Amino acid sequence: MDTLAIRQELHHYIDTADDASVEAMYSNIKNEAIEKYEWWNDEELMAELDKRSADLESGKDPGMTLEQSIDHLMNRLK
Known about the structure:
The chain contains four helices and no strands. The protein is an all-alpha fold.
């Protein structure tokens, strides 16, 4: 089902649902939006970022200049 069809089905459901159902759906959506991923508390991600940072600082990974990054991205668009 594509996004347009999902939107239409949701609109139809909201338009025809009773008040309690609409409030329950709203509460679920609102609660899900509030739950955010706190990447700084992800130990695996932080370890990977620390490793990459150390590799850049030590010269193990030479990194890229801003210009090199832009050139790389522009070439990918071609």
